[in-house]
Fold this protein.
Amino acid sequence: MYKYQIVIPSFILIIWFALAVFGPWLPLEPNYIILPNILQAPSSFEWLGYDDLGRPVLDRLIMGAKTSFFVAFGVIFVSVTVGTLVGAISAWFGGYIDLVLVRIMDVFLAFPGILLAIALSGILGPGIENVVFALSVVGWVGFARLARAQTLSLRRREHVLAAIALGARTPRILWYHILPLLLAPLIVEATFGIAGIVIAEAGLSFLGLGVQPPTASWGSMIKDGTSYMLVAPHMVLAPGLVLLLVVLSVNILGDKLRDYLDVKSR
Amino acid sequence: MPSFLLSRLLSMFTVLLGVITLIFFLIHLVPGDPVQAMLGETATPTDLEALRIALGLDQPLLTQWWLYMSNLFQGNLGNSLYSKEPIIDILIERFPATLELAAAGLLVAILLALPLGSIAALRKDTIYDNGAMVFSLLGVSIPNFWLGPMLILLFSLMLGWFPVSGREGALSLVLPAITLGTALAAILGRMVRSTLLEVLNEDYIRTARAKGLRESAIVIHHALRNASLPIITILGLQLGTLLGGAVITEIIFAWPGIGQLTIESIQRRDYPLVQACILLISLSYVFVNTFTDILYGWLDPRVRYSV
């Protein structure tokens, strides 16, 4: 039982990764409109049917995998880098620097995250890089808080004191003596973060604030499908189930990773 | 207690100032010209300049910020660019709907999470526990903008039990509340389970059992009561997510609240109104968190004296 809980989600995520990276080389036509096929139900010829413009749903799902994958990893990369840097600096230097940075974090935490992202991407306009920017503005705080809390306790550890006594410079201590010990909790947080970002990206696209059409996103596919739920339920079912599978897999693996790396739950 | 209260309120005030400032600068520093966006590509330079002066956008940024702050503290939020009505009136008209939705979502979450988490904890490692945990995992993983349409498809379009959208009567509140509350129920249910498991190992529970109390009395009066502190904390922290989720839920069900207003204003490029909507929701969130802190201090005297 335990084994399947790791194998199946990993398998799903590997497919997600593969489709995102290698999708462009597949013979897909996500934007090719076939008018007679509008809203056609799934068949043995076209497995997931066609959407309201006569475009194949399967091809668009694969295109959507690319969108969600690149947004998720872009945002995680920016958020983890910025967050860890700010958090570690805040805890390491303490004093006024810490006071100011913590206040700034408190302010960012005072927003319901998705709301700030909605406002930002609404003002910036649609586009994948704007989505990454908006979600990163929201995302870094969690990592900053985590890195700060961890660094606060790590800086009193003996190996760090030894490094200070030996005259190591601050960047060296942070990089070689603090960062490796920060990694485990950061990885766990980042895993759950990916689940949140995949939902948030789809949510923004659902609201029409995400990627620009005709680029596909699972969120905008769900949105398009809601107008045809009775005649073409496959338009909502397919992207929704794929989205659920990916998020579920990430969450299950996150749980396992947390147990494995023995990180205390928040 | 008074000094605890004061320190909480003081920190709330600084966070509020920060929130207002951050929203202001985010909206004003974002690349792109709002005036150009409002008037469209065909606007003449004279028109652009006129609107810029009318909106005070020709002033230095710090002056604009000061003006905005001082107006805000006098309760003046300006007028909507689209409907020309005072923003404060629009907010007052729309806010009750959002509050109603959030309260109903919260209720759904608590009603689902308490029994689910309790049963999972009391019947640990049984099929009930596993079932509850599967629900919890699904609940956090299912996006509300998919759950909502699915509920509409099943209960409105196919079974016809509830209205598809709108806000008319208690029935119309059911599906939006479930859509909004499910994710929170999942998180809360997990929390109830894990805190209850800890509490159930305490000595006073064994004492209560030894006294021969009924199991239900032990769970409700001794265990859940002591488990309530961490649960309240999580609840307070998650309310932000709930309010954020309300925006999307309102769009799904055409619920006439602040969330729908936010999206409408974004589409109409009515920036002052967008700014005011975000401000209102963030303020509610900060307010709720402060209230949670104070409640925590009231429930657990240890918190109060450690500040």
